[in-house]
Structures are given as structure tokens and as C-alpha cells.
């Protein structure tokens, strides 16, 4: 009984804790209500901007991106929800669709053949044949590199030691570093009208630094990310508790006292009216005037409902919480302990004590047969393999004996 009470108490504490840390709904701003949305786990998730219920767009780690959503609760309330997108899922969908999400795509890869800018007298080109440079608005590709101990080109390309000089070479370009008659390096480039960029995926642990700034997702990447989410909502992983969290938030909203619920509705519609008033002040068109009149009418209706509810609730007295008293189980425990010592229930204990004197530890029988010459073999046979069956039979015999004894006592007693 004590064990059951402890278990029930522990369950109650867990339930109490769950309720205490449940999602707390808040009133949606006009910006949040007009934000685009997706459907996940049967719930509406708003891709709300920062400041409309979420502190920042999200974060990134070495495995994926977390986007902060608002789970919609009714028409005017919501809760904070974190959605997660794995890099592997993002890259799989980006393949072939980079032009739709250029900022997001570029943040997950790097170019391997980007042209370096030449032109400075201190510039040192790459020695990798096939690499690109840009010079005076044109692209060139390296075809050869040679180091000369002396000589190496005509006097036209000689220059001050240490300088990098540039010489037209047909449609290409010649770059020479170090001049006169000493050692020099010569790079020969061919002119190209354009080049094809090549990319590789950057390691996952480098992506957070590429897409985050000041602890939040960069604005241009966030725009691509939201477009990506709207096109691929099934890739967003949401907490398994989301339906329960939404349902709990709805209960909190529905179980608020009428006065608080009315005030929340009035506050939300006031924000909507103020936004419509600002829009009309900035641009006095008939369309904006119609929106302002509609917003004002909805606000007036909510205030009228609030006044009516306040009048109806004026004479209502909330019920008092019942005074729950703790149940004392001590007498019940004492009764159980004393009953085992009273006749005739004590007979079972007495009979068991007498029978225990005749009981020894069970041991499986063993048989041994020795065969004489010419076999000279000893054959052993043990019943230990049937210990489980023997234990079951012993239990059934003991249970039968106890049941028979109890029934006999009851019949005799009657």
C-alpha cells in the first residue's frame, strides 16, 4: 500500500510539473496574424517576423537550422514553437534549385575557382595551371608558369627587382615578377571571355558562421529560408508534443475568466484599428478608409461584448476551492498487521513454521550406472534440466495446500 501511495504521489508531481511548464499563449500582433504560414502536425505555424512574438528568427548548429515559429491558437493567440531543418535535407532540395534560393545555396558551399584580382605591383599569382585572374575587367586563365634563374624574356619585360609587371601577349597576358637579368618568375595567361564557376559543399561546422550574424540568421538568408520552408513544409521537424502544446494553450485561452478574454480581444482589435489609422493617415485612399471603418466597427463590437459580459458577471461569485483533507491510512495498516496474529488467521503462520522444519533445500536427483569391462563406462543421468518444472509443481502443491487449509477453516468456522 505504501508503494502504491508513493507511486501515485510521484505521478501527481510529474503531472503538476508538466502543467507548470506548459506553453504560455500570448496575444498575436497584427504583423504576426498577417505572416505567411505552414501546416505541420495538424497545427498552423506562422513565419512571423522578429518582435511579433519571437525574440529572433533562429539559430544554426553543426547539423541544421532552427527557425522560430508561432503556433496559432485560435484567432488572436499563439505560442512559441521551434522548427528544425537538417542540412542534409536542405542540400538535397537545393540541388538543381539554387536560383530560387541563391543566398541560402551560396551559404552552404564555396567556389573553388574564383578569379583573383591582379594589377598591383605586389601581386603574386597562383602557380596552379588552369586558375583564373581578373585584370582590367577581363578574365585570364593560366596556361604555364616558369621560373628562370636568369634571362627568360626580352628586355621589354624587365623591370625593377621585386615588382610585378603586366604585358599584353596577343589575346592573353604575361605577368613577370623580378626583372633585369636576375631570377624571375613568368606566368603566361590566355584570354577567356567567361569562366564557369565550380563549387564544393563547405563542412557543416562552417555553415553557422556563414549564415548567422550577431546570434541570429542573416536577413537575406532568412528570406530565402522562409521561401524554402513555404515550398517544403514537410522538411520542418517540430516537437512531438506540438499537438498537445497547442491543445493545452487552447484550454488556457478558453478557461480564462471572461473579463480577461474580452480584454485580450479588445487589445488585439485596438492594435488592428491603430495600424489601419496609421495607413490611412499616410495614404488617404478610399480603400484605406474602408479598412479603417471595418477595424473600428470590429473594435466597437468587441467593446460592446465586453460591457455586456461585465454586467452579467457583476453578480457572479466564483466558487471556493474545496478544503481537501489528508486521508490517514495508519489504522488500516495497523489492522492488516494485527490481523495476521489473530486466530484463526495465525494458524497459517503456525503451520508454515512447523512445515519449514521438515523442508530442506530442493536438489535434483542424480543416477549413476557403471558398466564393467569391456565397456568400462560410467553413465550419469540428472533431473536438473527439469528444475523449472519441479519448482512450478512445488509452488502449485503449496498453493493447493494453503487454499485447502483456508477453505477447511472457513467451513469449520461456519
**What overall form do the CA principal axes indicate?**
flat
* SS elements, strand count: 18
Structural class: alpha+beta
- Give the SSE string: HEHEEEEEHHEEEEEEEEHEEHHHHHHEEH
Main sheet makeup: 6 strands, antiparallel
- Uncertain regions spanning at least 5 consecutive residues: 1-21, 314-319
Strand content: 15-25%
Helix content: 40-55%
Mean pLDDT: 78
Q: State the end-to-end CA separation.
A: 31 Å
Oligomer: single chain
Number of helices: 12
What would your notes on this structure say?
The chain is an alpha+beta fold and 414 residues long. It is built from twelve helices and 18 strands. The protein has helices spanning 2-20, 30-33, 87-94, 102-107, 207-211, 219-231, 242-254, 258-282, 286-312, 330-339, 346-356, 387-413, and strands at 26-27, 37-40, 43-46, 58-60, 64-73, 77-86, 109-111, 116-117, 132-135, 138-148, 164-169, 172-177, 184-192, 199-201, 212-213, 216-217, 366-371, 377-382. The longest helix is centred in the last third of the chain and has 27 residues, at 286-312.
